[in-house]
TrEMBL record:
Its EC number is 4.2.1.11. Keywords: Glycolysis, Lyase. Belongs to the enolase family. This is phosphopyruvate hydratase. PANTHER family: ENOLASE, ENOLASE 4. The gene is ENO4. Gene3D superfamilies: Enolase-like C-terminal domain. GO terms for molecular function: magnesium ion binding; phosphopyruvate hydratase activity.
Amino acid sequence: MAIGAVSLAVAKACAMLLNKPLYLNIALLKHNQEQPMLFMPLLMVSLISCGKSSSGKLNLMKEVICIPHPELTTKQGVEMLMEIQKHINKIIEMPSPPKAETKKGHDGSKRGQQQITGKMSHLGCLTINCDTIEQPLLLIQEICANLGLELGTNLHLAINCAGHELMDYSKGKYEVIMGTYKNAAEMVDLYVDLINKYPSIIALIDPFRKEDSEQWDSIYHALGSRCYIIAGTASKSISKLLEQGNISIPKSNGLIIKHTNQTTMSDLVEITNLIDSKKHITVFGSTEGESSDDSLVDLAVGLGVRFIKLGGLSRGERVTKYNRLLTIEEELVQNGTLDTSSSSCDARIGGQEQETMTLVKV
């Protein structure tokens, strides 16, 4: 169970002895000791959570994630998303104005409608109560409009659906909204309608539990050219993926990988090479119950992954990692080893220079 920690410790010790940063040591390992040009992974930043842990009726969106445009630097992307986060916090904290009494109710609201409230989650973002699928998306859309930003241009969205958490096994259906159940086939239609209505969503993470392989196939064929279908929890462990050499079950065009206690540095190099060879994208994610160790950021940069998913911009253990990401970008720019061409956008992903900032613990 300690092999992952031992392997990381060896990699860190090697980097120290060679007087090189950890990310460069990992990159040399991946590229057979040839000095590579490095690029920054694109940010996947969790802004709000409306999953089963929230007090609202909506269960579907465990994380609503923002992805800054690839042409922005990491620093510019973080600053933009911090500004959006500030406005979300203001809206959540702002008391609702008094409303005249109507026949519908003393507050004039629709039945079952409640003021949006929120609390900080372990994901580093606000958990808010929403009753409909559209509500969190419209919230972010409105904030972006107020800031002069356009969804689908300046930034895009990803949804962590956490399909395995939605399943009501007594009914054999997904509980998308409290009291609203859909079978696997109906969920495909729901996701297609969602992407049609909100084309700025360019990634769906775990839209189904891993057992619904037929629906993974269906959604991949329906949306795979317009939206990344990413397997996280639904994917097999790295050791099993390497053993079988097959990453196409469930059907997806991207995988979330994590450094766990069972995963060596060589495993990470091998799995990213395998994913790259299949023309899939790699998302490097953080683990549950993580510490303030920022090594995973070095691993993501050294392995050359497409995206990095660290959670929200709050909580010390996550802020530390974002600060490390900014530091690495500065080092690569100063050393002239930052490859900006590698972050060019593809068909799914459609600034002014700002002052340097340091994130602070919230």
